[in-house]
Amino acid sequence: MKTLLVFDFDDTLVDDNSDTWVIQCIPDQCLPDLVKNSYQKGRWTEYMGRVMSYIGDQDISPDTIRSVMETIPFTDGMIELLTFIVSNKNDIDCIIISDSNTVFIDWILQVAGVQAAVDQVFTNPATFDKRGYMEIECYHSHQCSQCPVNLCKRKVLADFLAGQLKGGVDYQRTFYVGDGGNDLCPSNSLREGDVVFPRKGYTLERLLSRQSAQQGEGSSNPRVIGWTSGKEILMELKACVPL
């Protein structure tokens, strides 16, 4: 019986937003108003497509973008947590569900040397075209009214768990680690005995606190443990994994 760790990426594994970090590769580190003002609520991926198109228009190469993305810092304690996961793959599976993109996440995990910790990454597919422009696609479509149009993390997690069960893997517990509003939907799909780890001071913590106050005592929910460092999550994980 394994433990499953599910991570968000931006402001969770890394201590910033990869989609805004990339702006540092622009010489004046500023987008024109035409691009900035084109964002529509719930359609961040399409907006990032326009951002990356603008970056391509400035003749900024993929290598330059990569060199900038590789400087994004990991959140305190997360490298230690991922290193522990690598050393205990017989007992722990680990996935990332993120609204970033495949290219950014792959680059950042590789430069830190922790890609072996992660079994699968579920995020928006990205590639570079012949011109060297990054193109980003939406991960999927779904019917959830709570989530952005391109990604329902609850559906991704449910589909993953169902596929694993078909393959004979039934997790003893799931740890879900996140920070944002789009982490509430999957958090609400967790079972009693699972744990959701909202980052302290971020949106998910506030939403879970408000939800808990509305539901009152007696509801069978996963445990909620706030965190500021990956070391706190590591302590909980070590308590569950036979050493």
TrEMBL record:
Residues that hold Mg(2+) according to the record: D8, D10, D179
Gene3D superfamilies reported for this sequence: HAD superfamily/HAD-like
GO molecular function annotation: metal ion binding; phosphatase activity
Cofactors: Mg(2+)
Active-site positions on this chain: D8, D10
Classification via InterPro entries: HAD-like_sf, HAD_hydro_PyrdxlP_Pase-like, HAD_sf, Pase_PHOSPHO-typ
Family assignment from sequence similarity: Belongs to the HAD-like hydrolase superfamily. PHOSPHO family.
Name of the protein in its database record: Pyridoxal phosphate phosphatase PHOSPHO2-like
